[in-house]
Recover the amino acids of this structure.
């Protein structure tokens, strides 16, 4: 049983799950699928291509799956996926993909705070938090558990690793490898995200391992490719080292400095 | 006498004072009190547990008293107070408190400009001004008569003293004592926008040419008037030089430096 306010406009072609609440003046377009137990706030507009999971909350006036802000976009059918239990706050804007990748993806339990913008073709992992007014450029990748502080602009194609925390008010123009804190102007490495990692159950042994990895990357006098080689030689079997090396290999914009 | 537009949705449980105006598509929830002569703009939503004083003006699409963006918040009853004579502009979001202090408080004669955000448990005292896009995180206390510039990021738990003024686009990560001006970083010359120029059909010769002109302005040891003289002597009929010199001559507050 869905509960749609009489002033809301819900296309008969849209597929709504059980127990969805649609608040006044919300507008849900044709090619939209919404899971069970979702709450669609007042004045929210959900455009074509949206695929929304279960227990998602979308707050007042947010705009979901609108056309990408990309001059190359030519009305092709693309999508915007939003995972279960995610929350999208007031005035946030999330655009659908372009033909570049065909979709914009938000994982599960993602918290997007007020005024944040997620551009076309972004991929946001599970449990990420984007604080107020964070503005992601197109094709940005934010891996699981990463937290981006308020008002941070992120350049297009940037990759942000797992469990990263980024200080509010900084600017991101380069890739940020997993497990670390980054802040400052220009943005740089500020040690491990110890608080976040401990909260998520990393043991002190594991933290020591990760610390060793980042000592090689940021606290020796090696450049990034030398550091990578050293990691491959010294810690070939370590899963965290593998993860960091893999991130470095996939980095296209280069890593942030120290 | 209350003036409620026919498309607005006002709960019968809400308490509205004398001479209140509710504009089209606005929504007023159950547990809301609004004082006399207050104006609620179009599409604005006032959520539960909000108390708004007299002579307040809230413009289009604002969101007042919604639930905090705090993962610790579990739906407890908390409040949001807006003092008399305050003005709140378009797309502003003000969240109610969490269990920590149970309320968010905006004083009297406060002026909050477009897109600004005041998070849970904040206190903004009387006569403060908050310019566009300023994002204030949770538990921040802004004392009376403080002026915060545009696009300022204020991190959690900060205190801004009374009669302070903060320049625009700053990140506030420490307390600011009363009566002072805070913020100094200035925008600088960062070279030519050569990619943009090339995309717009400027030839390499033209770009080199413009660069030469700017070298005199920013890269030589000349001051601006000396540079201007040198440019007019060396590039007397050059359209770019004429354009740049005209721009500088028309500048009332001076141009950026390097």
């Amino acid at each position: 049983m869905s509960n749609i306010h009489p002033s809301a406009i819900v296309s008969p072609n849209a597929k709504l799950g059980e127990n969805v609440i649609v608040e006044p003046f919300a507008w849900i377009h044709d090619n939209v699928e919404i899971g069970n137990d979702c709450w669609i706030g007042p004045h929210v507009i959900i455009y074509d291509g949206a695929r929304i999971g279960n227990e998602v909350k979308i707050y007042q006036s947010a705009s979901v799956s609108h056309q990408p802000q990309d001059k190359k976009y030519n009305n092709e059918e693309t999508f915007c996926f939003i995972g279960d239990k995610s929350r999208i706050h007031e005035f946030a804007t999330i655009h659908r993909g372009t033909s570049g990748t065909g979709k914009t993806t938000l994982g599960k339990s993602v918290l997007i705070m007020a005024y944040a913008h997620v551009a076309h073709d972004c991929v946001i992992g599970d449990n990420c938090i984007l604080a107020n007014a964070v503005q992601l450029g197109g094709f940005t990748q934010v891996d699981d558990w990463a937290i981006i502080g308020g008002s941070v602009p992120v350049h297009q194609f940037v990759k942000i690793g797992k469990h990263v925390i980024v200080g509010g008010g900084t600017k991101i123009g380069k890739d940020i490898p997993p497990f670390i804190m980054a802040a400052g102007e220009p943005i740089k490495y500020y040690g491990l995200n110890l608080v976040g990692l401990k909260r998520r159950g990393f043991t002190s042994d594991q933290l020591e391992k990760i610390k060793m990895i980042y000592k090689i990357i940021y606290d020796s006098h090696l450049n990034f490719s030398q550091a990578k080689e050293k990691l491959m030689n010294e810690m070939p079997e370590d899963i965290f080292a593998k993860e960091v090396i893999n991130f470095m290999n996939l980095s296209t914009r280069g890593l942030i400095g120290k | 006498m209350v003036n409620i537009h026919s498309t607005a949705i006002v709960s019968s449980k809400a308490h509205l004072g004398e001479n209140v105006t509710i504009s089209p598509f606005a929504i007023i929830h159950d547990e809301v009190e609004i004082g006399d002569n207050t104006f609620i703009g179009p599409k604005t939503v006032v959520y539960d547990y909000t108390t708004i004083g007299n002579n307040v003006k809230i413009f289009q699409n604002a969101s007042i008293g919604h639930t905090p963006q705090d993962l610790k918040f579990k739906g407890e009853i908390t409040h949001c107070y807006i003092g008399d004579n305050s003005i709140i502009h378009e797309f502003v979001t003000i969240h109610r408190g969490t269990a920590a202090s149970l309320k968010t408080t905006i004083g009297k004669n406060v002026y909050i400009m477009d897109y600004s955000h005041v998070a849970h448990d904040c206190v903004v005292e009387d006569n403060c001004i908050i310019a566009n896009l300023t994002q204030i995180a949770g538990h921040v206390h802004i004392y009376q008569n403080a002026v915060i510039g545009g696009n300022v990021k204020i991190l959690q738990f900060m205190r801004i003293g009374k009669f302070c003024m903060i320049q625009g686009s700053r990140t506030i990560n420490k307390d600011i004592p009363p009566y002072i001006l805070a913020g100094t970083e200035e925008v600088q010359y960062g070279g030519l926008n050569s990619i943009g120029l090339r995309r717009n059909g400027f030839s390499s010769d033209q770009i080199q040419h413009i660069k030469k002109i700017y070298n005199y302005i920013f890269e030589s040891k000349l001051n601006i008037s000396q540079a201007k003289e040198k440019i007019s002597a060396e590039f007397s009929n050059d359209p770019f030089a004429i354009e740049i010199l005209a721009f500088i001559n028309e500048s009332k507050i001076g141009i950026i430096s390097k």
